[in-house]
Amino acid sequence: MDAVTMKVLIIIPAYNEAGNIKRVVEELTAMYPQYDYVVVNDGSADETPKICRDNGFNLISLPINLGLSGAFRTGAKFAFRSGYDCALQYDGDGQHDPRFIRSMVEAMEREHADIVIGSRFVNAHKKFTARMAGNSIISAFIRMTTGAVIRDSTSGMRLYSRRILQWFAQYINYDPEPDTIAYLIRCGAKVEEIPVEMRERIAGESYFHIGSIIKYMMRVCSSILFMQWFRQRKQL
Amino acid sequence: MSLSLRIFLIVGALCALAFVGRKIRKAQLKLIDGFTWFIFAVLLLLMSLFPDIVYFFARLVGIISPANLVFAVLIAVLLLIVFVQSIRISQAEVKIGELAEEVALRDERYNNLVQGDAAKNETDAGAKRQDVKSPADLTDQNGNGSRCGRGK
Question: Does ipTM exceed 0.85?
């Protein structure tokens, strides 16, 4: 089955990615001329927006820094309003390997999934690092509260269907984070995991540097364990 | 700690939880902000359901009336919340300011483009002209107020 039947938007949130963005977008467009993409500049202090304009990349530029959620939500709003069938959350730092995008889109079509996660651990095992420990803890909490097995809960490479995008675009408390995945599973979303490989980032600094991992874990875990129960459970 | 104080704390905690729950269900509160009050309510419940904890710490720091420790803890927690919120209000004000400045500058640039386009008339072909032409028509319909058009 050919994957061009679905209208796909690749959303690339970029915060201070001057060293990466050109390479990332060029690699992507060379491999997938059939998919649309948009770079969402999240109020970068460096040359990121200038590089995008000079190279004629599709760009939405936020005047202030909103964080990953705000940047992604901007892209989700654009995708929803422009009639895309699904949108991919894709890192601007070159960590994600575009080779696997096609199989993710195909999986969404084939399985009629609402969320397809590009998962590092479908076949491979987790390495033992602080980040991977966090990954396992979050996966365990998701399993505890929803019963669903998500092997790579913190993967930042996720494909969302249109009806999920609508919620991202219209309501608060939908962040492109594992706690939202847990909530959506409870709402009846169908989640698929597709094996991908990821690379080390080459230049610049990640959204999640070591200092913010604990903060991130606090936010995500408190949300999955406690706060999700207060939310109104919508039916997909 | 008297029974009436304990009941008062329990009622307070349950009210806080109910209020936070309602706000989150209506999607009017961010989850992380709700979590602050969730912790606050849990703290109240812990102190009222297990007063032995309060007695222990009151003896430890030399407070004669355990109720005073409860008040001290509540004041400390509230001060912390106020402090964090004050930082966030500052940051939010800065961001609103930046947004307003950005909108004003874009308005300015947009008006210049519109006027420049009218002056240049039909000579300039290409993508840039197309971008500007439709908003130019829009401002003509709305009179001079360029802001009216932008809001819609």
Answer: no
